[in-house]
Amino acid sequence: MDLKYNVVGWFEIPVTDMDRAIKFYETVFGYKMDLKPEENGMQMAWFPMDEPDAEGEKYGAGGALVKHEMSQPSATGTVVYFNANSGDLANELGKVEAAGGKVLKDKMDIGEHGFIGIFMDTEGNTVAIHSM
To answer: Is 97 helix (H, G, I), strand (E, B) or coil?
Structure first.
């Protein structure tokens, strides 16, 4: 099968306190979230992203923090892996606890696929970081 785009097209991370969650992710990753106007009882803050071009040349998927009665944070649900924009996930992972989260797994070598680190965000979600 020849994929035109990556399999994942969008992800959502549930939050209970949007302001706290935005501050956490902006602090850890160093980018600005895009808070959207509330609509139909849902608050969303989008992570920075580039749309895939016609050839599907952009890597990864876009996503958002979401506050809605049907979305609840979970330490045992799906795990989203963020790319470390710094190039070394130790930089982002080193900011997690000062930002209110908890490091669950320090930087770990996964061989030819690089490194991962796992943390719990301020909302109780288990999230991971990857770098080469």
So the answer is: coil
Residue spans per domain, the chain: 10-131
HSE at residue 108, side-chain half, CA atoms within 13 A, is: 11
Q: Identify which of 28, 116, 3 has the alpha carbon closest to the alpha carbon of residue 13.
A: 28
Cβ neighbours of residue 88 closer than 8 Å, sequence gap 6 or more: 131
**pLDDT tens string for the chain (132 positions)?**
666 666 777 899 999 999 999 999 999 999 999 999 999 999 999 999 876 666 656 666 889 999 999 999 999 989 999 999 999 999 999 999 999 999 999 999 999 999 999 999 999 999 999 999
Q: For residues 60 and 50, what is the distance between their CA atoms, to the nearest angstrom?
A: 9
Beta carbons of 89 and 39 less than 8 angstroms apart: no
Q: Would strands 34-35 and 102-109 be described as parallel, antiparallel, or unpaired?
A: unpaired
Indicate the CATH number for domain 10-131: 3.10.180.10
**What separation in angstroms does the CA of 104 have from each of 51, 118, 128?**
31, 5, 9
